[in-house]
Amino acid sequence: MFRPLEISIGLRYLRARRASKFVSFISLVSLLGVGVGVAALIVVLSVMNGFEQELRGRLLNLSTHGVVTAPDGALADWRTPLARLEQVPGVTGVAPYVEVQAMLANDGLLKGTLLRGVDPALEGAVSEVGRHLLAGRLDYLQPGSNALLLGRLLAARLRVGVGDSVSLLVPSGGERGTRLVPRLRRFTVVGLFEVGMEEQDGVLALAHLEDAAAARGKPGQVSGLRLRFEDLFAAPRVTRELAATLGSGYEARDWTAENASYFRAVRIEKTMMTIILSLVVAVAAFNIVATLVMVVNDKRTEIAILRTMGLPPGGVMRVFLVQGAAIGVAGTALGVLAGVPLALHAGSIMPALESLFGFSLLPPEVYYISQLPSELRWPQVALVTSIALALCLLSTVYPARRAARTEPAEALRYE
What we know:
This protein is of the alpha+beta class and 415 residues long. 54% of the residues lie in helices and 18% in strands.
């Protein structure tokens, strides 16, 4: 149990005296090191949270929270399960879709594409494509019109714009063994969209559901049903429940499975950055070890006097634990007080720094974002604080034990 005497002595040793200014300077450096490490951890984790949220939002702009399909990839009677799914609590939107791997050709240029057939009347309930249209409208996709909405990058690579025609080549099995016979259809570009993801802007083409089914060679059939849930993060659980409810003739998957590689990469990067920046705090904590060892050597005579006056070895140990803990707590508090505002206002601070130093950290033409994203999560702040305090407290154990083993007679022999 810490007593007022031990706390008072421990805090007194933090104050600089003429003979120990260097030790106090090292203490200040240790405190600032802990603060810088904690602030850096909070800011970096918040920025990575922001990038993760930005990535998730962009991926789900034209994707959905869940998908229900048939094992063979073709649903003929899709209106029955659609009506059932619309009645499920937590499901806010259901829409049919058709997906076709194809090629688009224009004036000698040939690009791979994912043709997605959608129902304009229902698509708005499961995706946000309408918010990302640069030209045209979703309702321009009418049955039999052979109209296309192209991603901006895909249109640029094909050198086409609104009003131009392109050829769609869909490979299909012919009657001559395994040879593929391309099915050719002409489509007209009626609009462009841009989401900010290469995988969508450079590959995706949208057509009406019936036109895509006809191009696929399976009129009246769809690839599956796209779902949107009230709670995004409940998608894995709800999707499994829906699959069990619909029966064995259906398969279900959610957005976390379809985009697992992206979020796994972000999670690994976040973990590695946490470990690397924790080493900054660890280095500062080791400075506390050096500081306290020097204090112990400097205060050997005073420790011996305290021991002769009746202070037990445990009391001496607690004196130096108080000193090390005070440095750790002050440094951690400084880091939190600096890191939290920086994380909360990273989006507005970065443009000011870019303007001051004349550089662009995130060029919009490369990263598709106009400001540095940041999302502060208080559980992470608590975790960083706990790590910093734990490292600082652990660093005080060895010097404190060394001070407690000081022998009064040996320390006072030459005094």
